[in-house]
Specification:
Shape: globular
CATH architecture: 3-Layer(aba) Sandwich
Radius of gyration: 17 Å
Strand content: 15-25%
Number of domains: 1
Order of helices and strands: EHEHEHEHEHEHHE
């Protein structure tokens, strides 16, 4: 039987790569990220994955890429929006264009993904749309002004999608990662922290895979994950 297609945005060296390797065990995976060289290297490592370099902050380019993926690989039955626009800064001094860019990445790109691929999922009567987020989607802490409003908008947009698409058989879910993810730059930043301080990308990917395949009788919309020692 021919494999179905999974689309993953934000394929970086941490969570994105882990998501690709996890979902590639069952799906053909369309990978989106800005770094074409990294995508091509990962595609060479994971035969079921295909590279589509794209900056999701640019709506016109993103829509062209999504159309190409659908033509090449068919309409995805699973979409994971892992791309993130972030940054920190004081509310009174941040550049408005940073907030605007983050809104394009976190919220508008998600809208384009939903509008492009949800109709085919509805027609098929099945599918899953997920987004990865963090606790800034729930609270606007000081110095998170460039990111928190856009992540909150992302979560609310996804909740609206869940209420709209759920009755049609489409599982929509938000995965909030309340943790420092284990990647090289965070290891350098938190060099004095023990291993179990970090959330492992493979474990995040496993949670996303689990959510994408939940039984209809017990769907989860919000999954908040954190290491066992996280202070919350």
């Amino acid at each position: 039987m021919e494999r179905e297609t999974c689309l993953i945005t934000g394929v970086g060296p941490g969570t994105g790569t882990a998501l690709v390797k996890c979902f590639a065990q069952r799906y053909r995976v369309a990978m989106i990220a800005r770094d074409g060289d990294r995508l091509n290297a990962l595609a060479a490592e994971v035969p079921q994955a295909r590279a589509y370099p794209c900056n999701v902050a640019k709506s016109e380019t993103l829509l062209e890429t999504l159309a190409t993926i659908q033509q090449d690989m068919g309409a995805p039955s699973v979409v994971v929006h892992n791309a993130v626009g972030g940054g920190m800064g004081d509310l009174l001094s941040i550049e408005p264009k940073v907030l605007e860019r983050n809104f394009q990445i976190n919220t508008m790109a998600l809208l384009h993904l939903i509008q492009t691929y949800a109709p085919a999922m509805v027609e098929a009567g099945k599918g899953a749309i997920l987004a990865t987020g963090n606790t800034s989607a729930y609270r606007g802490k000081a110095n998170f002004a460039p990111m928190a409003p856009t992540k909150a908008a992302q979560r609310i947009l996804l909740e609206s999608a869940a209420r709209s698409l759920g009755p049609a058989g489409i599982h929509v879910s938000y995965v909030a990662i309340d943790a420092v993810i284990d990647v090289p730059w965070t290891r350098e930043w938190y060099k004095d922290k023990p291993d179990d301080f970090f959330c492992q990308p493979d474990d995040i990917a496993a949670e996303c895979f689990h959510l994408a395949h939940q039984a209809k009788s017990a769907w989860t919309f919000e999954s908040v994950i954190r290491p066992f020692g996280e202070n919350w």
